[in-house]
Amino acid sequence: MVLFVVIPFVVFIVLDCTFSPPVRSTHYGIPGKLQAGRVEVGGCAYPGPIGAAFVALSLTDLVQVEVGSNLAPSWALGFAGLRLTLDRPLNGKGFAADVEFGAGAGAGGVFDDGGSSSLEWSDLVAYGAYLGAGVAGHLNENGGGFLRTRVQVSKADQIPATVWASLLAGVQITAHDLVNFSFGIGFGGYGNTVHTVAPIFIFEFGLSIEFEIFTCERPEPPPEEVGEAKAEAETQEEEKEAAVEDVEEVEDVEDAEEKKEVVEKGQAVSPPEVAPEVPKDPCPSGAVVRGSPPPDGFEVYCAGEDLVRNGWYVGFYEDGRKASEGVYSDGVRDGKWVFYYGNGKIRLEAGYRKGRKHGRWVFRDREGAEIRAVEYVDDLEK
Fold first, then answer.
1. Ordered alpha helix ranges (H), the chain
2. Is the pTM of this model over 0.70?
3. What does the alpha-carbon distance between residue 68 and residue 46 come to, in Å, rounded to a whole number?
């Protein structure tokens, strides 16, 4: 522990160093954790003291925008970038990966000129860019281990362009789907035409909080509850089997064989026309039934002239089978919602209150048997 604390001071204070400052000195936590519509606010720090504060907004399940600051005794920079999630864990458990890139600017740098210059670090304009990647193993929805690497190039006035590289291994713990704690150790270094230092030992810790600012609507449960890729593959297989069964019931044998061949070659078979069963008085005052089922659409819902959803909702798979149903209130989910597999069995029964997870969530397998149940209160797991 003493080694991790002392080495950064030795490198940056005792030794004669020359470098343009890194754009982003600390790392991010575990990949694949932030869903669409959620914001993360936090920061990371070394014992240097060197640290960075950041705000991350997930526009989709795969695209995340990040802005922040990078502060140390010899520099102050701001940065902005994107994080692209390449893979996400299924049901909070499994593999995850992402890539990050961005740029920043500010002031700072360290220049060993033998004391002949009166310039302060705040007089030096600095800028640069970074590129990094991360992989992780999510043990469950409460965290896991990760590995990160980053390369960045920076330039400051009167200081040569400097290349920085780092590698960090760490763990992250998430409490109540709200607070993230991370800890990592690793090493890094820099090099330019004047000076090179490697390795620099890294001892890093981070803290952040998450919250939701908008709800991303899906006809099926979000990826954190059900693996979409797996569900889609299973649905496609069922559609093919159903199409073959329909073909076998055709009385004309030759025509049946011809249609069966079309299915085996993966060509489309026209889905049946469907008409949803509309409940009595599905919409509140001022709202009417809108949308249409396949093949013209994928959902039927209640909304007023402002198109804000209020009242009954049902979503469909491409072949017309029901995918989800529930009730909206002022544009957000409210009350009990039910999500279905392609075979018609219930995959998830979920409770909402004004757009937040609230009540008992029951997950089921493709045969309808209960897998697990979770109690939520205002988006927090009990």
1. 2-9, 228-248, 253-264
2. no
3. 16
